[in-house]
Amino acid sequence: MVSNLTATAPQLKLTPLNNAHRQMGGRMVDFGGWDMPVQYPAGTIEEHLRTRTHAGLFDVSHMGEIDVRGPEAIAFVNGLTSNDVTKLVDGQAQYSALTTEKGTVIDDLLVYRLSADHLLLVVNASTTDKDWQWISSHHAGEAVELKNVSSDYCQLALQGPDAINILQKLTDLPLTEIKYYHFMTGKVDGIDSIVSRTGYTGEDGFEVYAAPQHAEQLWAKILDAGNLGADDGVLPCGLAARNTLRLEAGMALYGNDIDETTTLFEANLGWICKLDKGEFIGRDALAQQKAAGVKRKLVGFEVTDRGIARDHQDVVIDDQRVGTVTSGSPAPYLKRNIGLAYVPIEHANVGQEISIDVRGRLVRAQLVKTPFYKRPK
Amino acid sequence: MANVPEDLHYSKDHEWVRVEGDQAVIGITDYAQNSLGDVVYVELPKTGEEFAANEPFGSVESVKAVSEVFTPVAGSIVTINESLADEPEKVNSDPYGEGWMIRLKMANPGDVDSLLTAAEYEDFTKAESE
Q: Most Cβ neighbours (<10 Å): which of A197, A212, A233, B101?
């Protein structure tokens, strides 16, 4: 009955924390070509709950980074992404998307403005090569220098209500002064870092970028500062908890909820789609879709029967298969079974009853507002 | 290391079988529950349903994944462990005790002869995790 126990193939890519994960008992899996911990001995549920109530530490060094430098850096990236890069100030980050001519999503990403002529793009691990090809193929004489710097960074995400106090023990940077989606550069435990108040869990928290040779030191020091081992201490968290945390927070996962077949408006990402900012790839298609209205929409649902909806299962309304679950999972903090699905726009209303085909059994569910979880202020 | 009680029979799909007269009690092994992670849902058949050997009788779900469970012996369901509906975590905490899944009346008690002994199962899991 257990099929996911395959030993690690040697050609998988490793983050600089691979040994640390193995030493801590991380269960390693092939995640898009990366050898990554899906969970540690505490288990996914405990990792998820600890992040909501105290703090969780995630190795996200597999994420890609692309450096864009030069006098036309902002204009160049603005032409490739849907959000408005000109609105950023130094020390600010922005959630955005690389879009196709059709307004569908090549990747979602963070755009960091280090200075007026220096941006750092942080992209998904499995799409880094594709993004790099796309971005560099659109470089046609603009005064920018592009560099895939993915292997120059480790990235650690410390998330949860205690994250700020833990990280503050290791840095003189005034963390309370870093606003959400802003960052500072400085030392963390003596190591040059970018410290960004961002994350993928729905909690307050930080993402720390540094040179990969310092990853093990940062990892160990943060766990130590977070009182690893105590009932209210930090826990190292795997990809399974990362997924359930982001789903409770209603955040889209590239490859599941958004991809090159889904447009930004269908995915409820109209808020990162600035049609009046000037020309960018996909703008015309997106403007047309906005005017005409979308035919389907990404919605949140909660299972009301016993049963768990899973990725790729069909959504059924009035005996018709009308859509697909793109993310479905138990929600460990909410203790409900939730998911995201595309449904036709005429059914995309909170309260709509749907069924989900769970391996041949129709399980009832109801559309609900997203995010499913919102942290207390 | 995973706990493998001496007195049970084991399948290569990681189920255990305890023979009690002409009945068999079936669950998943310690090794299996550990590999799955936190069990959050168990789907079991109804009393009276009949299964051939090696046929799936239900499923076990962790946060991350769904796995079918197979009956290593043929028979009809006498009872199921209804407490797993509300306390699926028993499969993790006590896989050979309170985490049992089904009790069936064996159609062919000889089915157990083809199953692994505790020692054989232990060797099998060692080989699988290498």
A: B101
CB contact B55 to A (< 8 Å): no
Q: Where are the beta strands (DSSP E) in A73-204?
A: 92-99, 105-115, 118-123, 145-148, 154-159, 183-188, 191-196
> What pLDDT is stored for residue A4 in this prediction?
47
Residue from the list A5, A306, A307 with its beta carbon closest to the beta carbon of B35: A5
Q: Distance between CA atoms of B51 and B59, rounded to whole angstroms?
A: 14
Asked whether residue B83 is assigned to any structural domain, the reply reads: yes
Range of the domain at B78: 14-108
Q: For position B73, which CATH number holds?
A: 2.40.50.100
ipTM summary value: 0.87
Across chain A, what does the average pLDDT equal?
96
B42 closest CA partner among B63, B59, B65, B27? B59
| Range B47-73 average pLDDT | 96
Contacts of B46 in chain A (CB under 8 A): none
Total domains, chain B: 1
Which chain A residues have a beta carbon less than 8 Å from that of B58?
Answer: none
The pLDDT score that the predictor gives to residue A7 is 52
- Contacts of A119 by beta carbon, 8 Å cutoff, 6+ apart: A67, A68, A69, A73, A74, A77, A85, A111, A112, A113
B94 lies in some domain: yes
Third-level CATH fold of A270-368: Elongation Factor Tu (Ef-tu); domain 3 (2.40.30)
Q: pLDDT band at residue B11, thresholds of 50, 70 and 90?
A: very high
A308·B41 Cβ contact <8 A: yes
pLDDT score at B1: 63
Give B120 to chain A, closest Cα distance, Å: 18
Residues of chain A with pLDDT under 50: 2-6
Residue A310 CA to residue A166 CA, distance in Å, equals 35
Nearest to B32 among A2, A38, A244 (CB): A2
Picking from A53, A373, A366, A57, the residue whose alpha carbon sits closest to that of residue A245 is A373
User: pTM here?
Assistant: 0.94
Q: Which CATH number fits domain A18-61+153-248: 3.30.1360.30, 3.90.230.10, 3.30.750.24, 3.30.1360.120?
A: 3.30.1360.120
Q: Which superfamily is assigned to A64-151 in CATH?
A: Aminomethyltransferase beta-barrel domains (3.30.70.1400)
